[in-house]
Amino acid sequence: MKALVFQGAGGIAWQDVPDPGIEAASDAIVRVDAVGICGTDLHIVKGDVPTVETGRVLGHEAVGTVVEAGGDIRTVRPGDRVLISCVSPCGRCPFCRGRRYGQCRGGGGWVLGHTVDGTQAEYVRVPFADLSVHPLPDAVDSFDAVLLADIFPTAYEVGVLNGGVRPGDTVVVVGAGPVGLAAIVTARLYSPGRIVAVDLSESRLAAARGLGADATATAGEGPEQLVADLTDGLGADVVMEAVGVPEAFEMCTRMVRPGGRVANIGVHGGPAALHLEDLWSKDVTITTGLVDTTSTPMLLRMMAAGRLPAGELITHRFEFGQIEEAYDVFGRAAGTGAIKVVLGGPQHTAVEAAHFAGAG
Question: Helices H, strands E: what count in the chain?
């Protein structure tokens, strides 16, 4: 089969790799029908995630069709169209029992495209599939559903819930990429008083306004002063960092009010300064986190009911064979206007799927 393989910092290649097979009774093999490129994938290619080895198949967002299921699988069966979660919980370790799936210590957690081969391939082996794949209702479009694999649960759990967004709050989202925009959408569920979006790109800020941001500013337009003006100098109740660079995190800590919350969502490849000389007396709460995906079933119900405008974030669609071009477009988002890039997988016949599953 074909897959996108990490070649070391700065390199990727769409190439032939061996087909995946069942390795444990809790595995499922899924034919990938739609797959997303995540900002974390860009961090990996840049070399910011050293735990990803050269030769790894990348990707952790996908929708597909189950073609084979291990003997322990009870929730899905061959032929089911499913959402593949970016987190694969073992379900047995203390963290999983506490629904902290992102911290799994039983061989799961964020493994796809990280420590095991991922979803940017024609087929993928999904570990712990009973908990990490979700059957999709017919009403949900495959391309839209890809956004529930990672960015929407990440924005909601690591941003909105960790940030403790409440009715009437002033919320600032620094970074209007896919996760930042999803944070704006899901923060609105809690009726904040206002949402402010900050980004370098005017096109992304336009998208933020379209999705519910009440005010926007580029980094050069004085976002800190804007927040101060909107809050009578007090600062924002909740500030979310959705970029993953030191300057963005440090800006967030300057915009939060005393007693406020800073929710870091971005993937950081290097250190950021924590100015405790300014923060120690302000009763500020700073949270970090890896998504647990416990909210995915709820978000999926909202999407099926037409109450989650996920598809509006998709700006570019490609065929699988164009994945290297897709990475280039997403990596140059400031120039291309890319927000979310999704690719369609190859079209397989039922006979091919049955043959792959050993039933042919």
Answer: 15, 15
